[in-house]
Amino acid sequence: MIKRYNYNLLYNTGSIIKNIEEAKDKIIFDYRYDNNKNIFKYEMNKNTIIYGLGENVRGINKRGWVYTSFNTDDPDIHETRSSLYASHNFIIIIDENKKFGAFFDTPSEITFDLGYQDIDCISVETENGLNVYIIEDDSIDGIIKEFREIIGESYIPPFWAFGFCQSRWGYKTKEDVLDIVKNYEINNLPLDSICLDIDCLDNYKDFTFNSSFDNKKDFITELKNKNIRLVPIVDAAIKKDGSYYIYNEMLKNKYYCMDKDSNPYFVGVWPGDSLLPDYLNNNASKWFGSKYKELLDLGIEGFWNDMNEPALFYSRNHVDEVFKYIGEQVGKNFEVEDYFKNKGMVIGLQNNLNYYKELYHNIDGKLIRHYDIHNLYGYKMAEAASLYFKEYNKNKRYLLYSRSSHIGSHRYSGIWTGDNASWWNHILLNLKMLPSLNMCGYMYIGADSAGFGQNTTEDLAIRWAELSIFTPLFRNHSAKGTRNQEYYNFKNIDIFRNILSIRYMILPYLYSEFIKAVKTNSLLYKPLFMEFSNDERTREIEDEIIFGESILLAPIYVQNASGRYVYLPDDYLEVRVKNAKEFITRPLTKGDHYIKMNLDEVVFFIRKGYAIPIYKEFAKNVYDINYDNLSWIKNNDNLYEYTLVDKDDNYRTYKIK
Ligand code: GLC
User: Fold this and answer.
1) 169: which DSSP letter?
2) Is 198 in the pocket of ligand 1 (CB under 6 A)?
């Protein structure tokens, strides 16, 4: 059952697609308006679990920290952060005798204190008006299903987007791209796509290529004939450049975010001085969406939207003030306070909150302050692109994933989880985010495998790949200046080849479970406790998850570990895989097991009574998978029925003995 409570809703986010009558009874939270804030409190007992909040730090159980939804571009992702790139304001509270979901529908900053100030108390606070949706059901699955129904069906990418993607910030020329293709080919490593980052653009201008990419269309077609797609980046801001027609059109039509007097508000991002398109303005959004045509016409079928929190390195006004002030210090006697003041001013240039307060959107002729609807910006950018794709070709799926998101954008795009680092604990964070993101509607998801920031190590790249083969988006991506982490740059290329082959081996199961989870509003990844809620042990397990109908994942996320403890909440079959063709199995009973997992082995578990479809050959790309030649790994004594969704989305039922 879903109820809606209205607290002076400021702005309709569009997150909810169903009309739900306003409830008149008292909300389950202890509500008060105090100090200009809407405050929702709830007393926890010692066993209360809190799930949700999508892309965030810390555990699957979110209890014990304070999280803030305010989309932020900050690559330093550690556990004391409160806000990442997204705002996914859905939580599920599970007590012994009560379970409910709560969605706080607001475009503004909102804080979830889940036992931080007071270890036993939840306090959700926001200054702006909002709607709160309360969902009660007997089961956690039921709560999630009802929630997902009111936010609308999740985005589904094309089939090829489930193949492996190589990416790096720093690829610059057509030759760089050809070099990657060549290296993947000569090393017999599968590859489905390559991302083109900002250096491939002409002077950081969206929807362009630099001059090294001659004969673009032929080049794109040539690669597509090898089943390799190019996936260009689209950044949120548009370069200020009088010779750039997109900039000129935006200026002429006033499709930019403006200051309070409706003048263009110049900001700085990768292209230097730029303007932010006003994705919240309908006409501007339609106009921006139509710009993807440039690339669609060339045969491009996938995009990644970036810097759309929006990330701002400076505002033109402020940078002028700062550098004027600093200039005045030249030759002056400098005390240490002066040093710190000047340093602070420079550091304070980036993502300064004042910019968000000075920026305005023109929504139906009314100026709305950006700060109040900040969290919607990336969402509306994804919407602009996606609605245009439908117009361009309503029968085709395009790949789109975004860095910034807010519930609602899950209908239009997937997400990658931003600028992580080559740290072991980010493998674990990657695992823990998967169920939380699914609860909030995000299904096409993945993290930068092997880590974006910092230098990776060969064993980290291997261990991370051993998790990424199970996530819908599998992309090896890294930052400029870091160690080259394309798999062919390491010593044990054979191990990477084997691991990649397992991605394609498992893909029939992954794709099928993905589509069914989207279509039935259920989870592709679950915390163990959701499936085994009578088993108290599963309540606290944070480093194992259930993947699809029957697989249990328990990856290695510690350096130099050649094994780990795994708790099995039922009888399972251990599947120890070397590559797509070679694996061994052994039955394990419910309980604790120390499982050896050497660097060159992928180990996962299939629950008793089930079987999974696999492709038992090495594939070069997703199109090599022959759906008429699937094999099964069986852990069933009785007849077992599996509904497989194949690559063309046909449902095929198999009876497995
Ligand atoms: C941002 C993105 C990253 C990209 C870089 C350069 O940091 O998150 O993925 O490589 O910008 O475009």
Assistant:
1) B
2) yes
Distance of alpha carbon 222 from alpha carbon 241, whole angstroms = 32
In the chain, the percentage of residues whose pLDDT exceeds 70 is 100
Location of structure tokens 């602009």 = 384
Of 56, 75, 78, residue with least CA distance to 67: 56
**On the CB side of 164, how many CA atoms lie within 13 Å of its CA?**
28
* Burial bucket for residue 24 (CB in 10 Å: 0-12, 13-18, 19+): exposed
Q: What angle do CA 271, 68, 304 make, to 5 degrees?
A: 35
**Residue located nearest, by CA, to atom 7 of ligand 1:** 419
Q: How far, in Å, from the CA of 506 to the mean position of ligand 1?
A: 29
Chain centroid offset of residue 139 CA: 26
Task: For 415-425, write each residue's pLDDT tens digit.
Answer: 999 999 999 99
Altogether, the residues listed in the chain come to a count of 657
Whole-number Å distance, alpha carbon 237 to ligand 1 midpoint, is 13
Segment 628-653 mean pLDDT: 98
- Measured from the CB, is residue 74 less than 6 Å from ligand 1? no
Beta pairing class for 130-136 and 99-105: antiparallel
Q: In angstroms, rounded to a whole number, what is the distance separating the alpha carbons of residues 42 and 135? A: 15
Please choose from 55, 169, 234 the residue to mutate so as to test ligand 1's pocket, defined by most ligand atoms within 8 A of CB.
Answer: 169
Pocket test for ligand 1, best of 85, 171, 194, 197 (most atoms within 8 A of CB): 197
pLDDT, tens digit, 9 for 90 and up, residues 598-610 = 999 999 999 999 9
Distance CA(142)–CA(129), nearest Å, equals 28
Buried b (16+ CB within 10 A) or exposed e, 296-305: bebbbbbbbb
Query: For position 334, what pLDDT does the model report?
Result: 87
pLDDT tens digits along 77-122:
999 999 999 999 999 999 988 999 999 999 999 999 999 999 999 9
Three-state SS at 327:
helix
Q: Whose CA is nearest to atom 12 of ligand 1?
A: 198
pLDDT score of 10 = 84
Pocket lining: 169 vs ligand 1, CB cutoff 6 Å: yes
Residue 457 CB contacts under 8 Å (≥ 6 apart), including other chains: 422, 559
